[in-house]
Specification:
Layout lengths: L1 E3 L2 E2 L5 E5 L2 E5 L7 E9 L3 E11 L25 H20 L4 E2 L3 E2 L8 E7 L2 E5 L6 E3 L8 H10 L3 E9 L6 E8 L3 H7 L2 E4 L2 E2 L5 E6 L2 E6 L11 H15 L3 E5 L5 H6 L5 E6 L2 H13 L5 E5 L2 H4 L8 E4 L8 H10 L3 E6 L2 H11 L3 E10 L8 E8 L1
The structure holds S-adenosylmethionine.
S-adenosylmethionine (SAM) binds next to helix 5, strand 19 and helix 7.
Length: about 400
């Protein structure tokens, strides 16, 4: 069936209509005429795949990645990178208009030029096949190399790809001087891996002297363990954190909450401009690293609590600034209520999910004005967009 693609949806899929019903078409771009096959039909929408491109968009590029059609890691390999940035910017702008119905300033999108931005990969294995999950499936697509990660990570993939591995996590420091490998499965050459990796964990057993690598972000450095969270874009994280730091420099807050603090990265990054900071994260490994990061950065004005934000948030008063950087699920309803009651002068919301950001901003908007939103393309080649949003108490 021949259709014309009208625009991209929030997940980077082409949108067309058949008998007034919306159809989502993967790997199709606006303006293209494509021959499609319906692969899934629901009450309100259909999903389709492209059989043939009849009229190609000028924005279409030939994917550099040989696994592009199958691998579930990327969504937009077929779209020119500058158009991808435009798509993400427009997506933020349109959603703000739809959900907040306000003339909020959306600053220019920041992006990095380099392709090899990822400092981390997790690969899955079965019967000596190591790779990424196929789109919408648990089938493993064997991969020898990922174009989004740095060469050091690809070297490790090369070393272990023929081993009998269930799962491997490979991380590097942002300056590529440190490598961490955490394997579930059997490996043949421990010694060779120990020569390359600073941290080697096999089946939860630490085989190296160190259990974490040290990764710099601008003028700060951080311990990162296997189970700890760390921003994956090694080129753009400092710009993201600078956006937060620039607001903090202006307001010079006394008491600050760093909620969903991970390994304490943002709190420590802004600590020179605040009197006192309390960071909260429920992941034990994060908080262990965060406490070591206090010493590493000689910070004496920051404390970390290992617990759920929603369990602790009520206890605080007289807060000047709250930084929140929740997971994709965003802020839970209880936390949002307390944030409104706390009436902090400023909230800086760092979000990795535009839909939950919209929900949360709509709610917080009853007590806070939304000053601006700045998008960051932290995850090139995927549909995801990160945003920093500054809110001021009404
Ligand atoms: C997007 S990460 C941000 C980490 C950090 N701000 C950074 O930039 O590296 C979200 C963090 O929220 C933590 N988290 C998720 N749900 C939580 C909850 N209910 N309470 C506390 N921490 C939570 C996770 O452990 C993770 O470290």
């Amino acid at each position: 069936m021949e259709v014309t693609i009208e625009k991209l949806d929030n997940f980077g899929r082409g949108i067309t209509y058949i008998d007034e019903k919306i159809v989502f078409v993967e790997n199709a771009l606006p303006g293209e005429i494509v021959d499609i096959e319906i692969i899934n039909e629901k009450k309100k929408y259909k999903e389709a795949q492209v059989l043939k491109i009849i009229k190609k968009s000028n924005d279409r590029i030939k994917p550099l990645c040989p696994y592009s059609n199958e691998c579930g890691g990327c969504d937009l390999n077929h779209l020119d990178y500058s158009k991808e940035n435009e798509f993400k910017y427009t997506k933020v702008k349109e959603l703000v208009k739809k959900y907040l119905n306000e003339d909020i300033e959306i600053k220019e999108i920041s992006f990095s030029k380099e392709n090899t931005y990822r400092n981390k990969i997790v690969l899955h294995g079965k019967s000596k096949v190591l790779g990424q999950y196929k789109k919408h499936s648990n089938e493993i697509i064997p991969i020898n190399k990922c174009l989004l990660v740095n060469d050091k990570i690809n070297e490790i993939i090369e070393q272990v790809k023929e081993d009998n591995i269930e799962e491997v996590t490979i991380k590097t420091s942002n300056d590529l001087t440190n490598i961490l490998v955490d394997i579930k499965g059997e490996i043949t050459n421990h010694d060779k891996l120990l020569n390359i990796a600073n941290v080697l964990i096999v089946n939860n057993k630490l085989l190296s002297n160190d259990k974490s690598i040290i990764s710099p972000i601008n003028d700060k450095k951080y311990y990162v363990s296997s189970k700890s969270f760390f921003q994956v874009n090694r080129f753009l994280t400092s710009s993201l954190y600078d956006e937060v730091r620039n607001t903090v420099k202006k307001i010079k807050p006394n008491r600050v909450l760093d909620l969903y603090c991970g390994t304490g990265t943002i709190g420590i990054y802004i600590s020179d401009y605040c009197k006192e900071i309390i960071g909260i994260d429920y992941n034990k490994s994060n908080i262990e690293d965060a406490n070591k990061n206090i010493e590493l950065n000689k910070c004496n004005n920051i404390k970390f609590i290992c617990d759920k934000v929603e369990n602790r948030i009520e206890a605080f008063k007289d807060i000047d600034l709250i930084v929140v950087d929740p997971p994709r699920s965003g802020l839970d309803a209880h936390t949002r209520e307390i944030l409104k009651e706390l009436d902090s002068k400023t909230i800086i919301y760092v979000s990795c999910d535009i839909m939950t950001l919209m929900r949360d901003l709509k709610d917080l908007n009853t007590s806070y004005n939304i000053n601006y939103i700045k998008p960051f393309n932290m995850f090139p080649r995927t549909y995801h967009v990160e945003c920093v949003c500054v809110l001021n108490s009404k």
